[in-house]
Design brief:
The chain has helices spanning about 35, 95-105, 125-135, 145-165, 175-190, 195; strands at about 10-15, 20-25, 55-60, 70, 115-120, 170-175, 200-205. By secondary structure, it is of the alpha/beta class. The relative contact order is 0.18.
Length: about 200
């Protein structure tokens, strides 16, 4: 279930050196880390992305280069309040603003030499990742087999089937994105060696 737009409040999103006004829902359901670790009650993460729709992508480029980059953005959803959900829905304003800022200061570097693709995905919050890190020492515990990994692998499926057209590609991720990328390298590309053989490099930052 997505956040109620009618109940959103204005906040200042802090991301690195940048700040941006955004609106978030203050009354969302809050899952706990122990339930996430058990893969229980993930019904409050919102509607799954349909990657055939352009609004489920931050970036679908005009193809002008010989190589693509598929970029998985970092943790830009903080979830600082007790009532904030542990996963960002696709319409979460804090996440959307963070992805735009990250593109401006980081991922846009790939655009000089590659066609840059960036899908939106329902990411785990900084808050819940910190809680899980304290419990397990590995944030991938709540990413493997859960919503973020499922979204990214669905985006990869659509990208390879509809956008890649046989070009070599780079895959990159930062922070939570790099953790997901590690799982993709371990799992997804083992299942799809035909895609893996076209991979030029993987950057886990």
């Amino acid at each position: 279930m997505a956040c109620s737009k009618s109940k959103r409040i204005s906040v200042t999103v802090n991301y690195g050196i940048a700040k941006r006004e955004a609106a978030i829902c203050p009354t969302c359901y809050n899952q706990r880390s122990c339930r996430l670790l058990a893969n229980e009650d993930l019904s409050m993460v919102g509607k799954a992305p349909d990657y055939s729709q352009h609004d489920c992508w931050f970036k679908i480029p005009k193809i002008t280069k010989d190589i693509d980059t598929f970029y998985i953005y970092s943790t830009v959803y903080m979830s600082a309040g007790e009532s904030d959900p542990d996963y960002a829905t696709l319409d979460n304003a804090e996440m959307l603003a963070g992805v735009e800022i990250e593109h401006a200061i980081k991922s846009s570097a790939f655009e000089d030499s590659t066609n840059l693709f960036i899908p939106y995905y329902r990411q785990a919050s900084m808050k819940i990742m910190g809680e899980v890190w304290k419990k397990t020492g590995d944030v991938r515990t709540i990413l493997a087999g859960n919503t973020p990994y499922e979204d990214i692998t669905a985006a990869l499926d659509y990208y390879f089937e509809n956008y890649n057209e046989g070009r070599p590609f780079v895959i990159a991720g930062h922070s939570q994105g790099s953790a997901i990328l590690g799982l993709v390298l371990k799992g997804y590309f083992k299942e799809h060696p035909e895609y893996y053989e076209r991979m030029v490099a993987a950057y886990m930052v």
